[in-house]
Amino acid sequence: MNDIQLPAIDYAALLPMLIVFGAACVGILVEAFAPRGWRFVIQVSLTIGGLVAGLVAIIVNRDLEITTIGGAVTVDGPGLFLQGAIIILGIVSLGLIAERRLERGGPFVAEAAHAANSDGDKRQEREPGATEVFPLTLFAIAGMMLFCVSGDLLTMFVALEVFSLPLYLLCGLARRRRLISQEAALKYFLLGAFASAFFLYGVALLYGYAGTVSLTGIREGVLQSEQSGILLAAGLALLAIGLLFKAAAVPFHVWTPDVYQGAPTPVTALMAACTKAAAFGGLLRVFNVAFETTAWDWQPVLATVAILTMVVGSILAVAQTDIKRLLAYSSVANAGYLLVGVVSLNGAVGSSLFYLIAYGFSVLGAFAMVTLVRDSEGEATHLSRWAGLGKGSPLFSALFTFLMLGFAGIPLTSGFTSKFALFSSAWDSDQSVLVIVGVLSSVVLAFPYLKVVVLLWLNPPGEETPTVSVPSMLTRAVIFAGVAVTFVLGVAPSFLLDIVADAGPFLAK
Amino acid sequence: MTPDYYLILAAVLFTIGAVGVLVRRNAIVVFMCVELMLNAANLTLVTFARINGSLDGQIMAFFVMVVAAAEVVIGLAIIMSIFRSRRSASVDDANLLKY
Amino acid sequence: MDGYLGSYATLGVLLVVAGAFFVVAYTANRVLRTNAPSAAKSTSYECGLDPAEGSDWAQAQIRYYVYAFLYALFAVESVFLFPWAVVFDGLGMVSVAEMGVFVAVLALGLLYAWRKGVLTWT
């Protein structure tokens, strides 16, 4: 019985994740024992403190390249970069989650199960809002960090669930429009669980094929296995379904608009920025490490998915009448551009990472501004209500216009530099068809953005134009960060491009 | 008896679960179908552990059971909250969000 | 049907055949069947239980739902505790500490539930 060896654990490599997980656990204790009045302050400082400490640990680890805990975790350049990106985007989106001035008690409630306007709900109206959202957010972020550095598919599955489950809950905790919010949570949960079942069955088939689930083991197993190639193909296909669902690629995107629209806007922002980074981190790692040697087999299929995603996302974005749905379809189209980076393999890892940062900041800024346009019912997200906002609120409209131009890929914004970097590296990797489709679809995608700009400035205001609320410093900081990064990465992208170039390829041994 | 039969059984269970998710209307039944899919994957893992002569697959099945339990808790909480506020668990009635 | 794109051609043919099968079967059905619509026929039907409207399963006491949660918590614990208990004396104090951390994390959830008053019988 004594032949079991404990795997060596490099705690330094795991430190960033341990800090964030630990902070989340302490957050639960705070929730259980701290007096109600203090919880909000304690939770916000604990959450931000935990994330900043995690970021510091990542920066200290920046040159680390190691596989630890028996191959379960692979810390390497791109993995650390993605972890850092997720933490930074998480800190920024926390500004939206902690915003309390726009709505009394914040955008979340503690007990979403109360029917609207019931006695329990009215009592809840008077209380300060839920602070459970902070530990939940921390758990989600920690799960995403683990997802990006998973060295085997089982760890990846566990991490996938660790970051998905809190997100399902966060979707259903909106203070306003609770039925829609719960519906979004239900849809996201059922479809997400469905997709993760596919992921798991894919893992099981790959285990049968290669005899192991470690990514490097599968890479070697591909060359040596005596099992039928059908196991490999079916396993890879099912695995990809699970991953592409989280990345919101067509035809696995149908949850995206509903969930983005129904979830509380701060959570939508978190999903659009951080979940996207995590999902593509996982996709890049799986395809670059485990399946690079079989690229010839899956590249045409994934390229088809990428083309479908770009085309369907950008065309459906044109038809949207709700700003959150518009941004959701734009995130689908952007998933298509990022898939071009995945198909291009090692040549485009760096530019994909750059794209994730650039897109994440822009989309956080955009959703932050969506939270400001309000009437007595809460956020006014229907586009017709936005007509003529430029007259009453020129600063708001100018900033939103800048972000829309950034999404459209106008030069001097990060939208241009990130697309340029991504497409040129894909071109160098001989993916010219994808690049051409990408450029054409981004022309189509520019149309809905410009439609919003025209609506803001040129259309006459409607009868009851909503007002642009004045937020606290937190949301202001988020908007500033979003706009500033969109601008800085547009004019001086080289420092970040240097960092992603330094990150190097995924560790594949 | 060859282990292949277990793989086929698992594939059949997985397919039944997947079809069930697509055609059933009660959120709880949909959710049970997802659990069926996870268990089909578990059966596959254990069978391959037997074929490969290693214990890894059985350990993985433990992890999957734990994750599935966590998923049950979250799923029931969400379905409970939507049932309380709407008095219905039909996925067809959850129709406020559409284009 | 060979060469690199040949395998995709096979897949394409299969998809076309599958689509054609679907169309032909349903067209034949439509042509051959009698057509007598009634209101009862257009209600939804699921085998085993009435169409989901909520009323048919609301009779379960809501408080048992807490039991389901607690069961999940302890089931999760035992799944790892049993295999560990068989081998832990060969692994030394490190593994005891690690299992302690695991149980502590689960206990955290129980503690939270207790403080929130979930465990009182209402």
Automatic annotation (TrEMBL), chain A:
What domain of life does the native source organism fall in?
Bacteria
Instruction: Give yes or no: UniProt keyword Membrane.
Output: yes
One GO term in the molecular function aspect is: quinone binding
State the compartments where it is located.
Cell membrane; Endomembrane system; Membrane
Q: What class of enzyme is it?
A: translocase
EC code = 7.1.1.-
- Biological process GO annotation list? ATP synthesis coupled electron transport
The chemistry this enzyme catalyses reads: a quinone + NADH + 5 H(+)(in) = a quinol + NAD(+) + 4 H(+)(out)
GO cellular component term of the entry, any: endomembrane system
Q: Where is the NADH:quinone oxidoreductase/Mrp antiporter transmembrane domain?
A: 150-443
Q: How does it sit in the membrane?
A: Multi-pass membrane protein
Q: What keywords are assigned to this protein?
A: Cell membrane, Membrane, NAD, Quinone, Translocase, Transmembrane, Transmembrane helix, Transport
Does the entry feature the keyword Protease, yes or no? no
TM ranges are 12-33, 40-60, 80-98, 129-147, 153-174, 186-210, 230-255, 267-287, 299-319, 326-347, 353-373, 394-413, 433-458, 478-497
Q: Name one Pfam family in it.
A: Proton_antipo_M
Quaternary structure and partners: NDH-1 is composed of 14 different subunits. Subunits NuoA, H, J, K, L, M, N constitute the membrane sector of the complex.
Q: What HAMAP family does the entry give?
A: NDH1_NuoN_1 (MF_00445)
Give a short account of what the protein does.
Answer: NDH-1 shuttles electrons from NADH, via FMN and iron-sulfur (Fe-S) centers, to quinones in the respiratory chain. The immediate electron acceptor for the enzyme in this species is believed to be a menaquinone. Couples the redox reaction to proton translocation (for every two electrons transferred, four hydrogen ions are translocated across the cytoplasmic membrane), and thus conserves the redox energy in a proton gradient.
Family the entry assigns: Belongs to the complex I subunit 2 family.
Q: What is this protein called?
A: NADH-quinone oxidoreductase subunit N
Origin organism of this chain?
Phytomonospora endophytica
TrEMBL record, chain B:
Alphabetically sorted, this entry's keywords are:
Cell membrane, Membrane, NAD, Quinone, Translocase, Transmembrane, Transmembrane helix, Transport
State the compartments where it is located.
Answer: Cell membrane; Membrane
**UniProt-listed InterPro entries:** NADH_UbQ_OxRdtase_chain4L/K, NUOK/Mnh_C1-like
Known EC number? 7.1.1.-
Query: Single GO cellular component annotation?
Result: plasma membrane
Where is the chain membrane-spanning? 6-23, 28-49, 61-83
Report whether Hydrolase shows up as a keyword of the record.
no
Q: Which reaction does it catalyse?
A: a quinone + NADH + 5 H(+)(in) = a quinol + NAD(+) + 4 H(+)(out)
Role this protein plays: NDH-1 shuttles electrons from NADH, via FMN and iron-sulfur (Fe-S) centers, to quinones in the respiratory chain. The immediate electron acceptor for the enzyme in this species is believed to be a menaquinone. Couples the redox reaction to proton translocation (for every two electrons transferred, four hydrogen ions are translocated across the cytoplasmic membrane), and thus conserves the redox energy in a proton gradient.
Q: What is this protein called?
A: NADH-quinone oxidoreductase subunit K
* Gene source species: Phytomonospora endophytica
UniProtKB/TrEMBL annotation, chain C:
The source's domain of life comes to: Bacteria
Q: Matching InterPro entries, A to Z?
A: NADH_UbQ/plastoQ_OxRdtase_su3, NDAH_ubi_oxred_su3_sf
Q: Which locations, inside or outside the cell, does it occupy? A: Cell membrane; Membrane
Listed A to Z, the keywords are: Membrane, NAD, Quinone, Transmembrane, Transmembrane helix, Transport
Which EC numbers does the record give? Answer: 7.1.1.-
Q: Where are the transmembrane segments?
A: 6-28, 64-85, 91-114
Tell me one Pfam family matched here.
Oxidored_q4
- Entry GO terms, CC: NADH dehydrogenase complex; plasma membrane
Gene Ontology MF, one = NADH dehydrogenase (ubiquinone) activity
Q: How does it sit in the membrane?
A: Multi-pass membrane protein
Reaction(s) this enzyme catalyzes, per UniProt: a quinone + NADH + 5 H(+)(in) = a quinol + NAD(+) + 4 H(+)(out)
**Family statement:** Belongs to the complex I subunit 3 family.
Please explain the role this protein plays, according to its UniProt record.
Answer: NDH-1 shuttles electrons from NADH, via FMN and iron-sulfur (Fe-S) centers, to quinones in the respiratory chain.
Question: What is the official name of this protein in its record?
Answer: NADH-quinone oxidoreductase subunit
**Can you name the source organism?**
Phytomonospora endophytica
Record lineage: Bacteria, Bacillati, Actinomycetota, Actinomycetes, Micromonosporales
